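Worked example 2:
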Amino acid sequence: MYALIEFKGKQYKAEKGALLRVDRINAEVGSGLDIESVLLVSGDTLKVGSPYVAGTKVSAVVESHEKDKKIIVFKYKPKKDYRRKQGHRQRYSFIRIGDIIGA
């Protein structure tokens, strides 16, 4: 059984026990959260929401917070002495899917 959820503007496939890498959440490690924006639930039957499945939510636990590898953004214009170098490290969180409630 799995569910398609929308979380922070992106869609993820959530199965029981799955570990998802999502954009950074302002929550402590070990805290739980409920995601109520469930787009689709697949079990014995397929339930498709319009836009969300009513009465269904996914519970999850925050596992850890990490940073991605550094990327370099380098801009230049030839023969114009224009160079700009900028680095960026994306921050994200790992959440563990606990249960799909109301499926």
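Residues 2-65+92-101 form one domain. The first strand starts at residue 2 and ends at 7.
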